[in-house]
Amino acid sequence: MQPRIYTYKITFEEVPYYYYGSKKEKYYNQKYFGSPKANKWCWEIYTPKKQILEFFEYNDKGYEKCRQVEDRLIRPFLNDKWCLNEKCGGTYSTEILRKNGKKGGKIGGKKGYMNGLAKLTPKQRSENSKISGKIGGKIQGNRNRELKIGVCGRSKEQMSIDARKGGTITNKQKWICLETGHISTPGPLTLYQKVRGIDISKRKKL
Asked: Using CA atoms, how far apart are residues 5 and 16, in angstroms rounded to an integer?
């Protein structure tokens, strides 16, 4: 089987948060549940579930189209309180750049970067790209906090209230382990299965 390129949506069994993304597999059916940065806590606390939305041709053109579709999926929900995506595409409005005092430095820095890039080896370019990605993620997270975009637009009290509401709804759900027959709510059942080395996908909602 050949590796795939696709867009996906991540939801969580215990809470109403969600996340959109795109993936280019290294091998067929590669296990992957997104690459969150600022909101990684949600993946660590709750149980993610992936829904593949659309497949694309496995080539550069197909991947480019996949990323474009990803942006179109995220854009309408970027400011929704349950959306965990922190950015949409790599472009920002002039107004935002002006508010953050980044415009002049970014233009000058880009020229210097491009001049230096031509002198780097492919390996050095790859390493620089990884470093730039990490820095960019931190900058975008700070922008979102300053502009109160997405999850950053809610206070800790609001997030706590939202989580309690989501938890109340989830705690009314009952699931059964298909291997042992144990019945519980989503969170405790996940812990029960992990402790016993049982695949958490082996469950059914009652």
From this structure: 26
Phi, psi for residue 102 in degrees, rounded to 5 = -105, -15
- The Cα-based distances of 73 to 100, 116, 148, 179, 199 in angstroms read 26, 35, 20, 37, 30
**Domain definitions of the chain by residue range:** 1-86, 173-206
**What DSSP designation does 201 have?**
T
Pairwise CA distance, residues 13 & 51, whole Å? 13
- Round to whole Å and give the CA distance between 74 and 71: 5
DSSP state of 112: H
DSSP β-ladder status, 5-12 and 18-24: antiparallel
b/e code 118-131 from CB counts within 10 Å (16+ = b): eeeeeeeeeeeeee
Of 128, 38, 42, 155, nearest to 87 by C-alpha is 38
Q: Please write the tens of the pLDDT for every residue from 49-100.
A: 999 999 999 999 999 999 999 999 999 998 899 999 988 875 432 333 444 5
Residue 101, both tokens = 């005092």
Q: Kindly give, in sequence order, each residue whose CB lies less than 8 Å from that of residue 119, ignoring residues fewer than 6 positions away.
A: none
3-class secondary-structure state, position 63: helix
Tell me the whole-structure pTM to 2 decimals: 0.47
- How many of the other CB atoms lie within 10 Å of CB of 205? 9
Written as one letter, the residue type at 200 is I
91 SS3 class? coil
